[in-house]
Amino acid sequence: MSQNAANTEKVYHVKKSDLPVSCPGKGMALWNSHPKVFLPIEKTGEAVCEYCGAKYILQVD
């Protein structure tokens, strides 16, 4: 299987080039996951998915 399983980690580090951030993210299999939601990470630098609890942290370059 070429895609990563969705929501297998609890913390994801993302870059500005990854914006906008959604969960499940790019490269994650959608068939076994929750609906895709976009996360407002730009304002605070962090966001938590309301479905799975995965935390996304914006890396500072």
Largest sheet properties: 3 strands, mixed
Radius of gyration based on Cα positions:
11 Å
Q: Shape from CA axes?
A: globular
Helix content: under 10%
Number of domains in the coordinates?
1
How many beta-strand runs?
A: 5
Q: Unreliable runs, pLDDT <50, ≥5 residues?
A: none
Helix-strand pattern, N to C? Answer: EEEEE
Which class best fits the helix and strand makeup?
mainly beta
Give the averaged pLDDT, no decimals: 83
Instruction: Kindly estimate the percentage of residues that lie in beta strands according to DSSP.
Output: 25-35%
N-to-C terminal Cα separation, in Å?
Answer: 32 Å
How many helix segments? 0
What topology, given as strand order, has the largest sheet?
1-5-4
Structure write-up:
The chain is an all-beta fold and about 60 residues long. The protein has one domain. Helices cover about 0% and strands about 30% of the residues. It contains no helices and 5 strands. The protein has strands spanning about 10-15, 20-25, 35-40, 45-50, 55-60. Strands 1-5-4 form a 3-stranded mixed β-sheet, with no helix packed on it. The chain is globular and about 30 Å long. The model has no long low-confidence stretch (mean pLDDT about 85).
What would the keywords be for this entry?
about 60 residues; mainly beta; three-stranded mixed beta sheet; two-stranded antiparallel ribbon; 5 strands
